[in-house]
Amino acid sequence: MTEQKIRYFARAAGRVQGVGFRYFVQTNAMELDVTGWVRNMDDGSVTMEIQGAGEQLKKLVGRINKGSAFIKVKNMELTQIDVINQDKKFAILY
């Protein structure tokens, strides 16, 4: 039995632009079989939509919040939104 998918809209703030954040999110999402997209915003934050099984999303959000030597997420807001059934990949949007 496949776990039901969940989709979140998220906004991450902190040191999240110019540090490889979008690639970091994409790489981890693909590793965890999470679909969606990530995009830089003019205000210095990064928005994304992430979709997958609950456990995979929990792991991805944990990795994002942990960050890296360069990435420092100070705040991340999640809002559950409707699942997009035809979403099959994870993209970086420009």
UniProtKB/TrEMBL annotation:
Enzyme type, top EC level: hydrolase
Positions of the catalytic residues: 22, 40
Catalytic activity line of the entry: an acyl phosphate + H2O = a carboxylate + phosphate + H(+)
The Acylphosphatase-like domain, residue ranges: 7-94
Keyword Hydrolase: yes
GO MF entries: acylphosphatase activity
EC code(s) of this entry: 3.6.1.7
SUPFAM superfamilies: Acylphosphatase/BLUF domain-like (SSF54975)
Keywords: Hydrolase
Keyword Cytoplasm tagged: no
PANTHER family, per database record: ACYLPHOSPHATASE
Family from the record: Belongs to the acylphosphatase family.
Name of this protein: acylphosphatase
Species this chain originates from: Propionispira arboris
Lineage of the species this protein comes from: Bacteria, Bacillati, Bacillota, Negativicutes, Selenomonadales
